[in-house]
Amino acid sequence: MSDTRLLRRLVLGLTGTTPTVEQYEAMADAATPDAREAILRSTLDEVLASPKFYERMLRFGHEWIAVGAYTTGASGDAYQGDLSGHLFKCGTDTMHPGAYYHVNEFTAGDKSSNQCKDLDAGGNPAVAEARSVEPWWAPGTRVEVLGKAGSNVTQVADAKGQMLDCGIARGGYYDPMLPTGCGCGPNLVWCSPLTGLINGSNHDLGVQRRHPYEEPARLFAHLAWHDRPLSDLIIGNYSVGTNWLRALYVRLGRQMGSNALDANTTWWRPDADNAPRDPLHPSPNDPQAWREFVVEDLEPFHLALSNNRARSGSLERTYRFDPRTTTEAPKGLPSAGVLTMIGAMSSFPRERVRAARFLEIFACQSFSPPPADVHFPPYEVDPATGGTCLHCHKTLDPAAISFKRWDFGSAQSAYVPWPFIPGVGNHRVTKEWLSGKYPYTGNSPGYRWKNAFLPNTMLTPVTPEQITANPEAVLLDTMPESYTLLGVHGDGTMGPLGFGKLLVRSGEFDRCVSRKLYSMFIGRELNPASEKHFIDKLAREFVARDRKLRPFIRYLFEQPELRRGL
To answer: Where do the DUF1549 domain residues begin and end (predicted)?
Structure first.
C-alpha cells in the first residue's frame, strides 16, 4: 500500500473523514521513506487528539455496544419515564407566555391551562401566583412557574389525612383520588419540562429518552478520549451524563426512598466541579455536556465501593450479600459501568436476555441452536440441566444470576411500568409479592418471579425452606462458588459487578475487545478457531497497555498487516 493510501486509511479510520489536500501534498513532497514515516506518525498523533476521533469512537460505541431504545420504564406521559411530574408551558397568546404549570394541580381537560390566562378552574378571574425559579435543566437562567409547582411545599395530605412525600411520584393524569398542591422541589428537581414522553421516538438529543440510550456509547468514547482502561466499561463505578441523564438517576434514587440529593444543588451545575467531559461541549456551563460522575453520588443505591470515587474500575471492588443467610436488605447494587446503566438494563428487560446480550457484546460469545445429532438429558424443571435448551442455558443461567435485581412495576400507576432495584430501598420483597394472588397478579413482577425463579435450579440455587424463611432469597444474585462461567469461578461479588469482574479475570473481555478493535481499525475479522494464538497475543498487548485505547491503536498501526491493503 502506498504511503498516500496509508495516510487515507489512517485518517478515515480514526476520524471518519479523508485527509486534507494539504496533508496529501505534504506526503507527496516528502523525499525519503523516513520523512513519509514521520508524517504518518505525526498525523496519527494529530487525529488521536482531534474531537473527530471522539465522534468516530462514539459511532463505533453505538455499533459495538448495541442497546435498544429506552422505552420500558419511560413510556408514560404523567409521572413516569423521567420519574417526575411533567410541567406544561403556557402558550404565547396567554397572560403568562412561556410560564410553566403542573397540570395535576388543576382540573382535567382544557381547563387545566386556565391558570395561564389568570382564570380559575371554573373560568372565573383569578390572579395566578407566579414565582421565578432557576431550573435544574437550564442553570444560570430563570423561568416563571405558576401555582404550587414553584413553591416549597414538600408534603400534602391525602383523602385520609395521611401526609404524602411530594418527592415520590404517584399515579397518572387526572386521578381524582390523588392530592394536589405539591411543589416541584428545590430548583424544580422533582419535575420536568418535557411532556409527551408517550412518544416512543428517541431520534435526537432533544428528547430525554435518547440520553439513557446514548450513555453506553458515550462512556466508551469518554474512556477512549480520556485514556481510561476500557475495562471500566464493565467494572467502573462511574459514568458520563448530561443534566437530562443525571436527572434520571437522581429521580430513580428518590423514588426508591433516598432523599440524599434533596439538598444538593451541584449535580445539575456543570461548573460546580472540574469533572472530565466530552470535547464537543467545552463550555464549563453547558448542561448538555457529557460530564463524568460517580453513579452513587447521584443514585445512592448504585454502590461505588471505593475510596477512589472519581474513577475506580478496580477488580478489588467487592460487595458480598447472601439473602439466604440474612433478612436484612442489601445496601444497594454495586455499579458496574454499562452493566448497571438505566438504559442498558431496561432495554434488555429480563435477566437471561441481559446475560446473553452482555456475553455477546463483551465476551464475543455466540448462541446458536445445538447440532441435530446431540442428545440431551430430558427436560424436567430446569432448562440449564435438561432438554435442548441446555445447550445455551448451561452458560446463560450462571451469568443471568447476576442480573436479577432490575425490574419494572406498575404499583404507582395503572398503565406505566417504572424501573426499580428489587429488595433495595423501599422496594422490599415479601411473600405476598410472590403469592400470585390479588393484587399481586398480572403485571406484578413478583408474579413473574414466582414462575421464573424456581428453587433448586441453576438460576435460583436456593431451597424452598430458604425462600420461606426469607422471600428475597429468590433474588440471590451472586454466582455460587461451585459454579463456573467461561472456565472461571466467581469471587462472591454481588450482581453485575461480579459478572464484569469474571469477564476480566477470565481474559475473555480482553480477547473480545482485541478482536473488535482489530476488525475496526485493521479491517479484518479474526477467526477464533484458526487464529486463537494471534488473538491471545493481541490481548496480551492490550493488557500491557493498561487496556487503554490510544496506546493500543498506536500498536495496531505499527503492524505490517495494515499496509497490505486488506
So the answer is: 2-67
